[in-house]
Amino acid sequence: MLLSPNAMGPRLRVGLYLTTGAIAAFLLLPIVFIVLLSFGSSQWLVFPPPGWTLKWYEQFFANVEWMESAYTSLKVALLTT
Q1: If we measure between CA atoms, which residue out of 61, 62, 55 comes closest to residue 40?
Q2: pTM
Q3: In angstroms, rounded to a whole number, what is the distance separating the alpha carbons of residues 40 and 62?
Q4: Do 61 and 67 touch, CB atoms closer than 8 A?
Q5: What is the pLDDT of residues 15-68, one digit of tens each?
Q6: Angstrom distances, CA of residue 58 to CA of 12, 35, 47, 61, 67
Q7: What's the Cα-to-Cα distance from 78 to each of 24, 53, 67, rounded to whole Å?
Q8: With left for phi above 0 and alpha for psi between -120 and 50, is residue 51 left, alpha or beta?
């Protein structure tokens, strides 16, 4: 089969895996950085964070308006999928 990695030569297969890994890193690394920065103690997005805290998540889960909005977003996401 033409699209089977086993049917490709070893050089082409390595190139395919490297390209796939580079694309995955390009797409996922910004998400990883934002998640890590969300635990930072600074009010602004500063890298590296000056300290680590859960303060922002405590404020998020304590606010009823944010929780209602998150619940509405979850319902919309479930209905659309």
Answers
A1: 55
A2: 0.63
A3: 18
A4: yes
A5: 989 999 999 999 999 999 889 888 998 888 887 888 999 999 999 999 999 999
A6: 49, 15, 21, 5, 12
A7: 25, 31, 16
A8: beta
Each residue of 32-67: b (16+ CB within 10 Å) or e?
A: eeeeeeeebeeeeeeeeeeeeeeeeeeeeeeeeeee
Q: Which amino acid appears at position 29 of this protein?
A: L
**Dist. CA 77–CA 57, nearest whole Å:** 21
pLDDT greater at residue 9 or residue 62: 62
Q: In which element (H, E) is residue 66 found?
A: helix 64-80
